[in-house]
Every structure is written in structure tokens, then in C-alpha cells.
Amino acid sequence: MASLASVSHLLLLFLLLLPYLAISQSNITTGKSLVAGDKASTPWLSPSGDFALGFSQLDNGENFLVSIWYDKIREKTIVWCASENNKPVIVPRGSRLAVAADHGLALNDPGGGSLWSSNLIVGGVAYGYMNDTGNFVLKNSNSEILWESFKNPTDTILPGQIISDNRILLSSRQSASNFSLGRFQLHLQDGKLLLRTINLPSSYANDPYFTFPAPLPFIPGTGISFNDSGFLNLLHDNGQMSPLRTVSGESPRDYYLRATLESDGVFIQYSRPKTGGTWKGVWREPENICKTDLAPIGSGICGFNRICRLDVNYRPVCDCPRGFSLFDEKDEYRGCVPNYSQSCGEAQSSRPDMFVLDEITNIDWPTSDYELLQPFKEDECKDSCLHDCMCAVAIFRGGDMCWKKKLPLSNGRIDTSLNSKAFIKRRKDGIPPQTPSPPGPDDDKKDTLILAGSVLLGSSVFVNFILIAATGLGFFLIYQNKLKKYFKDESGMDINIRSFTYKELEDATGGFKEELGRGSFGIVYKGVIAIGDSKNVIAVKKLDRSFQESEKEFKTEVIVIGQTHHKNLVRLIGYCNEGQNRLLVYEFLSNGTLASFLFEDLKPSWEQRAQIALGIGRGLLYLHEECSTQIIHCDIKPQNILLDDYYNARISDFGLAKLLISQTHTHTAIRGTRGYVAPEWFRNMPITVKVDVYSFGILLLEIVCCRRSIDIEASNEDRVILADWAYDCYQEGTLEALVGEDEAAMNDMKKLERFVRVAIWCIQEDPALRPSMKKVMLMLEGIIQVSAPPSPFAYSTISTV
């Protein structure tokens, strides 16, 4: 009995000590370390395994970030990273992170040099501990906290975290994948919680674009906290707290919760079930960032000369107006630049015929006015801007007001309440800039030659020989590199797309192993390849044999495709033109095709479908009217529409059909898909942009109805052909039948009818009756009225009489 009692006491003692034993096993004692890029170096986990501290590998594969992330979810969402002066510390492979008694967390480069440390005021660290709340703490031998990640936030706050005594509470990253310091910050100033932009690379903060409502207006705020009930609160200097929003993100017991200042400036509280699912926004501020308070100084939300609009998820999308392009492709917030230099030199001011005005409705840059002309007629407003060398945009509104604006344009936004027209000046296509351009590569070459000549004149014959040989070798290598990487068009201009060897693409795709899909022009494979310093996921289209005997045409079309740049087109990265092999390399879009999104069980919302339709329309308008060479797609269908990370529509396979049409005029050149092919393909009629308009009309009906254009399994024989059924529903006034039980669509009957009317105009069998894509977009966006369309099948009936 005694022995049994002893065993019972020992068992009881073990159970009592078990929590402490578990905690001790989670402690990271001094001297323990992690090495960036070392697979044997496992991250430090919290007891539940929910959170991990370690090295996160960045896109290029050679740089790493010391970070804390959710370890049980696939995305490994990062919630904290080591930073210095609000700037993330990015380190090379082989760097070491250790818990040190004197410095706390100490980060050294592969050679042992110091990169970063937690900078303890008081030393004596005994161990570190990764907490189940996502807080990494450093403690002394008395278990007192010496340092914690919760007190050094980056862009995210977690349940249990309090951030106070910081003027800058949170700072955004530059983009979803770029952890460099972004331009948006959550500030606490004069007791008010606000969002503002900074003028990078400086830390100068602009006026706030959003100020949180003060729950206790006369009691200043001192910080923010995220409590265990899922509420984000403002702390006050009298010890009280008040919720920023009265909606909770559920209980942290069952849900992962976080609030993040996103790279686009929106502050969002997220919720995600621990059992699976995705992050969902519980609330966001501001609701419409494009219409926030105006910052009189600075560029606004999107950067100079840009336009802000909301996507289907109420997140900002920033666009350059036509005739403008991004100043820096790697940092879109640096703004857009026009295709001409605004100046009042004689060459420009005396030639208003050099310019045209593009008209866009309900767009404004409210803080860029320099002159108001009133009363003024619309034609007078346009003419005044064309003849004014200072004028970049004229806004006509109110029936008699002409607001003239000069560069740079700031706080650009879409505002349907304006009821205005914007006339944006741009240089006519084909007219070169009249102002001197900055020094280019040719100027650099001239300077190099002059310098080389000076050196040669002052050197010995032997040294001259060495210099000539080295210079010749250098130019040869540069020339070979350019040959490998770029095409040149007929004018000699570089087209910035990469030339790959067949072996490179074969290796990148693992021997063309993972097939993404088959299209009219060949098979698409998934691959990964290094471009510059980063590894990129790519889609490689292996063109079919129809292209093998058309080397010259292939080069010509690749040049044309490489010159296209639009947010609703899939970007061409490179090509392979080796022997009989013709391959195109595109960016990889993770959300697949519109077909898989549209025709599966989980249907996209009505608002998502409407935005997708508009995106496809804008892409086609660009191909038809706005790019340097008109492109007819010839195979618009859901399988050729891809969706990016934000479900924006991107048109693929453009520019390829011309090759096949040019090879033969027989019907074998028809590469369109059954159900989407315009009638003129079969009637020996000229092929024009109107074939794309027809296909877009069919696609628009599919988007509206969430069904295929031909459904042989339809319950009713009258519904097999979507175009026939849609026109019947339109004629009979039963459009609700097209969208079934989609309440959002039925509650938006005006837009539904407008979209169906536009689709019927697009599928007119007589090409002359079909509108241009420009008119299609004006109708879809509600800018011009859509008249009642005739029967789309009348042409075929007349033709047979």
C-alpha cells in the first residue's frame, strides 16, 4: 500500500509539474540560434504551434527576413518582422539569429558582423519564449520581461497586444510581397488616431487622409489595444478604453484575428477560422479610401498624376490616365509621367495641333486647379486647354465652369457625384516629344569614347593595347548580353522582354511536366525561373506546329505583344525562338481562368462579375484603339481570361491569331471557339475588330448568367443556346430568369438590363450594327444611354430571302 501511495504521490507531482516542464521545453536559452536558409534550422514555435519565429525567405530566394508568422495556415501570414527605424532588416543567406545574454536577440551576417539586435537597456537575458499570443519575449532569470515583439510593432496588431507611447503605431510595407517601408502610417498625434502618408525616402508626414472618430471626444488617446473579445480599442489617458468599431472578429479561441495596415493604406481587421478557411475582413477604415480627406500637400493616396478607384473588395486600384505611364514599375506610388514634357517653349505653345484631349467622365484632381473660367462652354474649355501650355487637364462641370489644372496632378479620384467631364491632354500618337530628352545610353557611349580617347593619348603603346583589348571584350560581352535579352523593333528600340533558350524553359518547367491548360495556340505549362535577383513563377506556352514555319512573323508579333502594357492584359515576360521551337513566357496568375471561376459551384458575386466584365472590356478597348499597333484577339472566351490575386480580369493569348490568319485565308485559319465565333468567319467577309465585339457579347451573357453559351444539358430546349434564351427573356421582360436566385443581381435591375442590352448589341450578326469597344464601355459604365437593340438574328434572316 505504501508503495502504491508513493507512486500516486509521484504521479500527482508529475501532473502538477507538467505545465512547467512544457514551458521549459519551449524556452530558447542563451546561445541557441537559427541560420537563414539552413533546412536543419527549425523555427522557434509557440506551445500550441500557432506562431513561429524564424527566417522567412523572400521572393529572390537569397534574402531573408527575421519574422513571426502563423505557422498552422498555408499562407504563413507574417505579423511581425525585425526592423530598424521602422525599416525591415533584410539579411542574406547564412545570417544567424541567436539569443544572447547581453544583446537579447542578436542578428549577425555570415561573417559574424552585427546586423541588428533588440538593443536591451538592461542585460542579463536568461531565455527567450515564443508565446501563444504571437509575442516573442526575452526574460531574465527571475522571469521578468526585458524585451518583447509586442512593444516593437510593424504593420500588424494581435489580440492581447497594446501599442502605446509610440507616435507611429504601425507602418505599412511597400507591397504584399515587398517588406520595405511603405508610405502609409497609423499615427497617434495630439490624442487623435489618424492615417497619413509619408514622403519617401524621407520620414516627412503629410496631413492625414483619415482620422478615426473620437469615441470620447474630450479625452485624448494614448494608444490602441486588441482585447481577447476580438475588439480593437482606443486607450485614453484617464485609463478608459473605447472600441474603434463596435463589431468583433469573433473569439480568439476559435478564430485567428489580426488588424493590419495594408500596403494600399487601408487599415483592416481580419478574422479566420482556426479549423480552415481564408482571411475575411471584419471591418476596414476608411471605407472608401479614394474619397478620403484631401491632403493639400502631397500626391494623395495613389501618387502624382494617378486616378484612384475601388475594386470589388473595396480596395483602391490606382491607374495612369491614357498618355501617362508609371515613373517606376517597381514602385507604383512614385506616380505617372506624361508622354510629353509640359513647358511653355515656342515649339510647344505654338503648336496646339500636337495634342489631343481624352474625355473621361466623373474624374477629378481637386487640389491641382490654377484657373477657373466662368461662364464657359464645353468647346471653349477644351480649346482653352489645348492652347494653354500650362494646362494638363480641364474639368468641365456645372454647365458653365471650366477648371484648368497643371502638373503634377494630385489626389486623383473617381467621383460619380461630380457630373463632370475631364479633358486630359496627351501628345498625338506618332509625334515625338519637342523638349530635349535626358541623357540616354547613346550619350553615355559618347562620353565613354571621349574618356577612352583621352586615356589613350596619354598612355604607352603597351597600355593602349591592353586598354583596346579590354574595351573591345567589354563591348562584345555587353552586345552579346543584349542580343540574348532583347528584341529590337524596326526603329531600333529595345523591347524589354527576355530571350530564353529552350533548355532554360525545359529546366524551368521540369521537362514540361505540370500542364496548366490547352488553348487554341498550344499547351501551357507551369514553371519557376530566376529573372534578375528573384525567382518567378511563370506560365510557358508551347506554341503548336502552326507557328514553326513563320520565324519572321513570330518575331514581329512578339515585338508587338511586348509593347503592350495594360492592367487587364497578361504580361509577356519573354520568348524562345530556337530552331523549330516557338514558346512564350508569361507571368503566372494564381487564380486561374474565368471559366473555372464562373462555371463551378461557388459562383462569384454580382458585383465581382460586373467588375470582371468591365475589366475585360477595358483590355479589349486598349487592344483595339489604344496600343501602338491594333490587335484583334479572335478568340475571346472564359478560358482566355485569367484572374490575378485580386480577381481582376486579365486577357491572355492576344496577338497570336494574326500569325495564323496571315498564313492562310481558308477556314483552317479560324481559331475561334464554338459558341463565340462571329458569323463573318464563315461568310468570306473581312475580319475586323468587330469579331472580338461579338465574342465579348457572348462572354458578357455568360458572366451575367453564370452559365456556358451552349448547354446541351439545359432543362429546357429553349435554353440550350444562351444568346437565343437571353434575347427571348429580354423581349418578354423576364430578365430575372437569367440570374436565377441571385438577389444582388435582381436588386440591381437597371445594371442587369443595361448589361443584357449591351450584350445583344454586341452579338448582332451584321458587323456594322455592332458598337466599337469604346462605345461598349461607355454604355456598360452608364455614361451613355443604351437604346433598345434589334433582334441579333435579323441579318441571317434577311440574307436568306
Could you characterize the architecture of this molecule?
This protein has 801 residues and is an alpha+beta fold. It has 4 domains: 135 residues, Orthogonal Prism (Agglutinin, subunit A), CATH 2.90.10.10; 113 residues, 3-Layer(bba) Sandwich (Hepatocyte Growth Factor), CATH 3.50.4; 128 residues, 2-Layer Sandwich (Phosphorylase Kinase, domain 1), CATH 3.30.200; 209 residues, Transferase(Phosphotransferase) domain 1 (Transferase(Phosphotransferase), domain 1, Orthogonal Bundle). 24% of the residues lie in helices and 28% in strands. The chain is built from 17 helices and 48 strands. A 6-stranded mixed β-sheet has the order 41-45-46-44-43-42. Strands 3, 4, 5, 6 and 9 form a 5-stranded antiparallel β-sheet that branches. The chain has a 5-stranded antiparallel β-sheet with strand order 32-38-35-36-34, with helices on one face. Strand 23 and strand 24 form a beta hairpin. Helix 9 packs antiparallel against helix 11, helix 9 packs antiparallel against helix 16 and helix 12 packs across helix 15. The protein is globular. The termini are far apart. The C terminus is likely disordered.
Which structural traits does this protein have?
801 residues; alpha+beta; Agglutinin, subunit A; Hepatocyte Growth Factor; Phosphorylase Kinase, domain 1; six-stranded mixed beta sheet; globular
